[in-house]
Amino acid sequence: MPLLEGKGVTRYFGGLAAVQHVDFYVDPGEIVGLIGPNGAGKTTLFNLISGALVPQSGTIRLKGENITGLKPHVICHKGIARTFQLVRVFPNMSVLENVLMGVLFGKPDGYDRKQARKDAEKWLDFVGLSAVKDWPARSLTLVNQKRLEVARALATGPELLLLDELMAGLNPTEVAQTMELVCRIREQGITIFMVEHVMKAIMGICDRIMVLHHGEKIAEGTPQEIANNRTVIEVYLGE
Ligand SMILES: Nc1ncnc2c1ncn2[C@@H]1O[C@H](COP(=O)(O)OP(=O)(O)O)[C@@H](O)[C@H]1O
Ligand SMILES: [Mg+2]
After folding, report:
1. Tens of pLDDT along 96-147?
2. What is the pLDDT, as a whole number, of residue 133?
3. Is 77 exposed, middle or buried (0-12, 13-18, 19+ CB in 10 A)?
4. Residue 74 — pLDDT band, cuts 50, 70, 90?
5. pLDDT at 45
6. Exposed (0-12), middle (13-18) or buried (19+): which is 119, by Cβ within 10 Å?
7. Distance between the two ends of the chain, CA-based, in angstroms?
8. Whose Cα sits closest to atom 4 in ligand 1?
9. From the CB of 11, is ligand 1 less than 6 Å away?
């Protein structure tokens, strides 16, 4: 059974079909890439999966359970976490406090504070931010704010992590480090569905890639198959 499965997922904004009858699946342990031109519907699809938006039709299932239209916090508790295309850390909280928010999210009231702090520190160490844990989040560079968002998402204990343009705006060294981070997340047993424009990253780490164009799925396959797909080259790669 796929970890995540969508059938006929559709979302309109007024007359515009942002996501149209899209079928997709992500198997446990996979890294799946989602690509396509700007405005293709990638972020909208992630918003539909994570519950920020409700589809007008179609079904989304997590391990066979219908999660379509559930509230974002419910979907998060069921095991889907995400990062945002435009980073959304809590700017005035410390780096550690940001990750504590992720740890405590979904834990019962009265969860042991010492244990929570340990959990948060573990994830900060995992993304390489231990040295700046007491800094206000706003003082971090872009790449570190992105790492912080990843740590906060991981701290909620997801089975599936949605990454929306994690590499955007990073320099080549940072892209390489982030690719390595994504692979280490998968080694933790967490499945990854990622939107990315950085082709080197997508081609280098994804097991499978899905392509959206004007809200419709136009191709799906291995990185090699996608790189050689005529339609994909015409509408996206050839740009
Ligand atoms: N909240 C919204 N209200 C109206 N239109 C939206 C909204 N969100 C996205 N859109 C439109 O839906 C289409 C897909 O957007 P988006 O999912 O952000 O694309 P991508 O992430 O692939 O660049 C675009 O035409 C965009 O303008
Ligand atoms: Mg987007």
Report:
1. 999 999 999 867 778 898 999 999 999 999 999 999 999 999 999 999 999 9
2. 97
3. middle
4. very high
5. 98
6. buried
7. 36
8. 13
9. no
The residue to which tokens 């379509």 are assigned: 68
Ligand 1 touching residue 106 (CB < 6 A): no
Alpha-carbon distance 142 to 118, whole Å? 25
Least distant ligand from the CA of 212: 1
86 C-alpha vs ligand 2 centroid, how far in Å?
A: 9
Q: Is residue 239's pLDDT more than 70?
A: no
Task: For residue 56, give the 3-state DSSP assignment.
Answer: coil
- 3-state percent breakdown (helix, strand, coil) of the chain, nearest 5: 40, 25, 35
Exposure string of 146-165, with b = 16+ CB inside 10 Å and e = fewer, is bbbbbbbbbbbbbbbbbbbb
- pLDDT for position 223: 96
Please report, for residues 138, 149, 199, 224, the alpha-carbon distance to residue 162 in angstroms, rounded to integers and kept in the order given: 23, 11, 18, 23
How many angstroms separate the alpha carbon of residue 212 from the centre of ligand 1?
Answer: 12
Which residues neighbour ligand 2 (ion) by CB within 5 Å? 42-43, 85
Phi, psi of 165, deg, nearest 5: 55, 50
